[in-house]
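Students often ask why inverse folding is considered easier than folding. One informal answer: many sequences map to the same fold, so there is more than one right answer. In these notes we will look at a single instance of the problem. The structure comes first.
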């Protein structure tokens, strides 16, 4: 995937769409570790071909950063699970025909137990997808309501009641693998940023030059972080808490780089014009025109990057508690 990302970026091929992220990067890799042989044979070819389009059913109105607080329930009825609940901030839910869901299957178990990871088709009665309009006017995120939704008994990834480790593996791929692929795309974006500075004449400003150099340096650091993560994956290791370092680094960096693009544009960014980004998840396409709308849209997306896949505050908690061994953050009272 990293080699493909490098070649696609070099050829100017758009990447980072919903199937790349939710299908291949997240669910596909998790299936390789946790799926049965039958699940791998059925789902993996359809993920690679794009025949199945997936979205992620994790966050709920009362279960965002505290994901284990989820209330979406699944009850076994003969050979089928019956699911009732709500998911929110579901990226590309309006485009998907399948959703991987965290559900509570044992209400009496401790919070992190009794959770089951289900693979659910969306083309059935009982599923309602409501787009959420953002400040930019896009509707990338959605609410998903599930009323007596059904899926087969064997549509469980991992074991019944033990979906939490599966969910954490998937989050590790979401956070960690992005660290191996995104530096390539951020490097391409940096090239556009440098061209924008020359195009606007802002490259003669010493402060702009200093910020450009800072961004370039951070892209190179991310490449080394990404190679470390990739090496662990190639050695067959599951994503661990160090994926939080990668996620925190790239998401905070991208906010900085995108904001520099807006600052270079100056007043032109106040009334964006031209082509908006084709992908609101992370960065615009390689070779995208340096329109003000492209950079303003990218800046909006970069702010979301510090929230989805675990907020920057949560990543700092993971680093402090699970890597540095610091005491847990006291709960609010």
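Output (designed amino acids):
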């Amino acid at each position: 995937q990293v080699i493909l990302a490098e070649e696609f970026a070099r050829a100017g091929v758009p990447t980072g769409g919903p199937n790349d992220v939710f299908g291949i990067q997240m669910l596909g890799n998790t299936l390789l570790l946790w799926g049965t042989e039958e699940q791998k044979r059925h789902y993996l070819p359809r993920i690679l071909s794009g025949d199945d389009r997936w979205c992620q059913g994790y966050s709920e109105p009362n279960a965002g950063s505290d994901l284990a607080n989820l209330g979406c329930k699944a009850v076994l009825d003969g050979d089928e699970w019956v699911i009732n609940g709500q998911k929110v901030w579901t990226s590309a839910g309006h485009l998907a025909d399948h959703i991987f869901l965290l559900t509570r299957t044992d209400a009496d178990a401790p919070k992190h137990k009794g959770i089951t990871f289900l693979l659910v088709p969306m083309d059935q009665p009982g599923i309602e997808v409501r787009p959420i309009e953002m400040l930019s006017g896009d509707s990338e995120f959605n609410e998903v309501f599930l009323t007596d939704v059904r899926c087969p008994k064997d549509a469980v990834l991992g074991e019944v009641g033990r979906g939490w480790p599966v969910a954490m593996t998937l989050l590790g791929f979401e956070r960690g693998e992005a660290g191996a692929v995104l530096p390539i795309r951020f490097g391409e974006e940096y090239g556009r940023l440098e061209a924008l500075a020359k195009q606007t004449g802002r490259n003669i400003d010493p402060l702009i030059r200093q910020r450009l150099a800072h961004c370039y340096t951070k892209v190179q650091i991310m490449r080394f972080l990404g190679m470390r993560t990739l090496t662990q994956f190639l050695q067959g290791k599951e994503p661990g808490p160090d994926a939080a370092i990668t996620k925190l680094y790239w998401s905070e960096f991208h906010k900085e780089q995108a904001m520099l693009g807006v600052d270079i544009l100056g007043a032109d960014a106040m009334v964006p014009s031209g082509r908006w980004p084709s992908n609101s998840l992370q960065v615009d396409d390689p070779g995208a025109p340096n329109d003000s709308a492209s950079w303003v849209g990218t800046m909006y997306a970069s702010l979301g990057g510090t929230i989805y896949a675990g907020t920057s505050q949560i990543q700092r908690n993971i680093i402090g508690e699970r890597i540095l061994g610091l005491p847990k953050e006291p709960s609010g009272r």
